[in-house]
Amino acid sequence: MKEVIIATKNPGKAKEFEHIFSPRGITIRTLLDFPDLPEVEETGSTFEENAILKAETVSRALNKMVMGDDSGLIIDALGGRPGIYSARYAGEPKNDENNIDKVLSELTHVPKEKRTARFYCALALAVPGQETFTVSGTCEGEILEEKRGKNGFGYDPIFFLPEIGRTMAELTSDEKNKISHRANALKKLDAELDSLLERGDNHV
Ligand SMILES: O=c1nc[nH]c2c1ncn2[C@H]1C[C@H](O)[C@@H](COP(=O)(O)OP(=O)(O)OP(=O)(O)O)O1
Ligand SMILES: [Mg+2]
């Protein structure tokens, strides 16, 4: 069986990776399957650094190939915030509702044309004995004034896609997984991942 371990505890991300990988016969496991591993501190100053920290820490602990995902929302009118602090924007423990409320209140007086934003996703692939590989992907949109839609996770309900005319939370998972920052990053990792999996490094 081909398997990829993702260094995440976020069930929303896990579902998306599963959705993208399972048609290719790849099973995913996440940190929820390895409850005894130590917590990875996100001490990096970029998405890439944090993705590498997640991937390499877990890869070293398990001696297996591991993928890390560090992602977030970059809002132009907020000088790029919440950025790498997206998950903990309204404080710990992280809470999507509170994070959305904080963003909306900071944007109260910002007009529609200045509410541009993008999702960013850095992925790192750590392979024992090899140099870690990183890629990134983005997805452009605008921040609405209120939530719309129930699908997805995180900031999806306030992230509007002008070309589609719906929020990310109003897309089906099929639709989101074709256009998202995570999907765009993953496309760039495809060749690398395929050759590693073909070589059998991660067959269990
Ligand atoms: O597709 C997305 N749709 C909506 N929101 C999203 C998305 N992708 C990332 N986000 C938000 C959620 C969280 O506020 C932050 C990620 O933070 P990030 O540290 O990478 O993930 P996390 O702490 O939730 O899980 P983990 O570190 O275990 O992978 O950006
Ligand atoms: Mg995190």
Automatic annotation (TrEMBL):
SUPFAM superfamilies: ITPase-like. Pfam families: Ham1p_like. Substrate binds at T8, K9, N10, P11, G12, K13, S71, F153, G154, Y155, D156, K176, H181, R182. Binds 1 Mg(2+) ion per subunit. Mg(2+) binds at E41, D70. Keywords: Hydrolase, Magnesium, Metal-binding, Nucleotide metabolism, Nucleotide-binding. The active site is at D70. It comes from the Bacteria. One of its GO terms (molecular function) is ITP diphosphatase activity. Its EC number is 3.6.1.66. InterPro entries: dITP/XTP_pyrophosphatase, ITPase-like_fam, RdgB/HAM1. The keyword Zinc-finger does not apply. It catalyses: XTP + H2O = XMP + diphosphate + H(+); ITP + H2O = IMP + diphosphate + H(+); dITP + H2O = dIMP + diphosphate + H(+). Its cofactor is Mg(2+). Belongs to the HAM1 NTPase family. Homodimer. NCBIfam families: PRK14822.1, RdgB/HAM1 family non-canonical purine NTP pyrophosphatase. Pyrophosphatase that catalyzes the hydrolysis of nucleoside triphosphates to their monophosphate derivatives, with a high preference for the non-canonical purine nucleotides XTP (xanthosine triphosphate), dITP (deoxyinosine triphosphate) and ITP. Seems to function as a house-cleaning enzyme that removes non-canonical purine nucleotides from the nucleotide pool, thus preventing their incorporation into DNA/RNA and avoiding chromosomal lesions. This is dITP/XTP pyrophosphatase. It comes from Neobacillus paridis.
